[in-house]
Amino acid sequence: MAPRYLGALDQGTTSTRFIVFDRNAKVVSMAQQEHQQIYPRPGWVEHDPEEIWRSTQQVIAQAMQQRGLRSSDLAAVGITNQRETTILWNQKTGRPAYNAIVWQDTRVEDAVAAFSHDGGQDRFRQKTGLPLATYFSGLKIRWILNHVPGVRKQVESGETVFGTIDTFLAWRLSGGPRGGVHLTDVTNASRTQLMNLKTLAWDREILACYEIPEIMLPRICSSSEIYGTAQMDAIEGVPIAGILGDQQAALAGQTCFRLGEAKSTYGTGCFLLMNTGHDLVPSQHGLLTTVAYRIGEQPVQYALEGSIAISGALVQWLRDNLGIIQNSADI
Question: What does pTM read for this prediction?
């Protein structure tokens, strides 16, 4: 019997969930777990990559068990993820070099100011669509390389690599130290501030400026192709066949495939994306130019994005840090 279902792994800023869909896109089963938000200093936000990996395994197993599903019931699994969040890990052991630095983290403010001083905040915008800001992965990578002892040497030897959450989970799911694939898709690569939007390749001029060795970066793929197969028990042998950053996944999920169609999503942050087709559209009013998606070998689709960094995250902060409420629903 042909596989009847699809699996979607959604690794977000505050939780991880796995959803199984049938052929009509109806939810068959779902499991979800929150993970810890780590605040070492004011403005610093981190996640434990090992906790995220454990919760990933657990929610996949739970969702499959709910309906008694076997791996042969799934045609494929896709990954969507919190963007820009940065992890460096050892490929031999799987051990993270440091906690994941979350997209909200502002520790690289001084670096943003320093790089903006020479060329302005938009010095890389023509290539990447992005202004210099604390948001993106490139300066987070640079911070880890410069502040965690021994990591740069491990990177230069090919032992330690970088990935956003999609890269880390695809590597773990496909075998980790035992042959896991090291790759990302164009949407996530476009949020590092290291990828050239026209060539869809890592930009060596920016890498040199940030002092980031290219050897540590994942291979850039499309948003829809078979990257490898899952090796964990609950979904062993299932193709990993889709990767999209969370906001681009929402754009696709709302079927905004035509020029001018847009979506707005309220989550940890609030994000509006509009499909601009095959055209790179520079914004005159502070929006970001980014990749919307790329299906296989088809031409890439671009988007304009407007972002509010803190929206739903404020509710969690009121609950967990101030203790004003006990449940999110209270507010």
Answer: 0.89
Phi and psi at residue 114, to the nearest 5°: -65, -45
DSSP state of 318: I
pLDDT tens by residue, 236-263: 999 999 999 989 999 999 999 999 999 9
Contacts of 45 (CB under 8 A, 6+ apart): 37, 38, 39, 101, 102, 104, 105
H helices of 254-306, in order, are none
Residue 292 φ then ψ, to 5°: -85, -50
Please give the pLDDT value at position 1.
Answer: 63
CA–CA dist 258, 234 (Å, integer): 37
Q: Which two tokens stand for residue 84?
A: 């820009």
184 vs 16: CA distance, rounded Å: 19
Amino acid, res. 211: E
Residues 6+ apart with CB under 8 A from 54: none
Provide, rounded to the nearest whole percent, the portion of the chain with pLDDT above 70: 100
Please check whether residue 23 is in contact with residue 4, taking contact to mean a CB–CB distance below 8 angstroms: yes
